[in-house]
Amino acid sequence: MVTKLLIANRGEIACRIMRTAREMGVATVAVYSDADAKALHTRSADEAVHIGPSPAAESYLVGAKIIAAAKETGAEAIHPGYGFLSENADFAQAVIDAGLIWVGPKPDSIRAMGLKDAAKGRMIAAGVPVTPGYLGADQSVERLSKEADTIGYPVLIKAVAGGGGKGMRKVDAAENFAADLESCRREAKASFGNDEVLLEKWITSPRHIEVQVFGDSHGNVVHLFERDCSLQRRHQKVIEEAPAPGMDEATRAEICAAAVRAAKAVDYEGAGTIEFIADASEGLRADRIFFMEMNTRLQVEHPVTEEITGVDLVEWQLRVASGEAIPLAQDELSINGWAIEARLYAEDPAKGFLPSTGRLDRLDLNEGFDNENLWVKGKLRIDTGVKQDDEISPFYDPMIAKIIARGDDREMAIEDLSSALHLTEVWPVRSNAPFLVKALEHEEFVDGKLTTAFIDKHGQGLLPNEEPRDEDWALAARLMFEPIDYDEGDDFIQGFRLNAEPRETIWLKHADETRELDRRKLQGVGGFGWHEPHLVVVFNGGGYFEFHHGFLGTGSASAADGAIIAPMPGKVIAVDVAEGDHVTAGQRLMVLEAMKMEHALTAPFDGTVTGLEASTGGQVQVESVLCVVEPAE
User: What is the pLDDT at residue 491?
Assistant: First the structure.
């Protein structure tokens, strides 16, 4: 068994791997960039090695530095986590060539499944059903456009080396194909260094069903049942659950058997996931479930499988990498209960889900919940890579935590996860918690009517309330007025009383609104809040509203209505206009790349471009004025 493990990753997954390693008596080594010098994973490991500047390309993606850190510390094995170098076959081989243990599949298995077109060919040969599409070597725009016409719109363009929703575009009509193909290729090249694509028929009532598989060096391969990951935004998974709603035993048996065949076709070892797309127009049926791709690593959503099977997948990874056989046979694995996971991100749903970076001055993820808690009837699990006062960096994925609820059935799991998200407190960074709450509580989700189009269909209705309720104003005022008396049952209020003379009214300001509130009308007001001098933060449904004393100036300077402002730090990758150009409302002006995603900036109205400050390749800071659109006369 491995005695010292280097984790070639950061954040939540690094902390999660360390937890199991610690329980197994395995010492851990963290690697960190400049931005992560004080990060939780850096602080939590037995040892930590600095590997470079903040950009991942200069630190976490430099395999030679990671291998050198393992050698320096005497680590015997490297666990890649997910993302970064986890599916890089050359890095896996370099680890092995250095005399270290690679906690993952063999490099040849990674290569076999790394390119989606080649992987599909293998699956066809193994008798695994695949989605109709085009896998050809001719990558010309003309050939791809012709094949899309043959397949029939809508079609899906996918980077052959892609993953995580990057390098993927749904195209609804032929006239949009060339532009979407160009954007897809550019994003794929930036993310994976490969701009080749394949085409697939778009499934009109799609559900994303995946199967956890596990293999060892003794020829054993088992499955650990399925997960449903249909709730996605821009092809990024948002909420995942296991088992899949509406899955009957016969269909489960067929899809899981197909997954095992897929893993055996590439002589698979370690943890992997076979992803399928299901045409759910008539429910889940084995003859309408198609192979999409294999992820040759641990998945972000692996906790839901762990919670329903009682298996620690990281422990299995370490044991199998050390040469042991899989601890359990297929007939020893079973489903027990239901688990649902929500990905809590530092992003602002009200601003198009743009990442929200900065310090977490307040972070309460309800980690003290247990089975006796008033709101949670089952089990709550928090996997996080940050604590209060940590930073959400602009350099990496802005995940705060994964919150997982396990219950006896789906209804209990939904109720517990929703309760936990309602009580989540994140400030001043914005989070997607209110969006997650509304998705979980939506009637169609509760009824199990899921497709990957769920969020697109209900998007506006899932956005958080932009204005505080009267109850929020009242709670803010009470927090300013009232001392906390926990003995009298005020445990729903968190805060302290400002040192001030007794008074009957108080002026509070939120955004552009100011109200006077009477303390005599605040009896019985409850909720969750917190404050600093002259500032009250009221938490509501996972989000928050800020209130200031009404006499304090709380506004900030803003650009003119026609100013095009950078919504976040990033790199300008395309500028479509020049100084003096006439533009129309909605016309794309430029494209900003941040967090490995593209963000198009468009004209707010008809007008003329002036004051153009952006140039292709330039780095910009948040709230920088990139250009101005002067309105047409």
Answer: 40
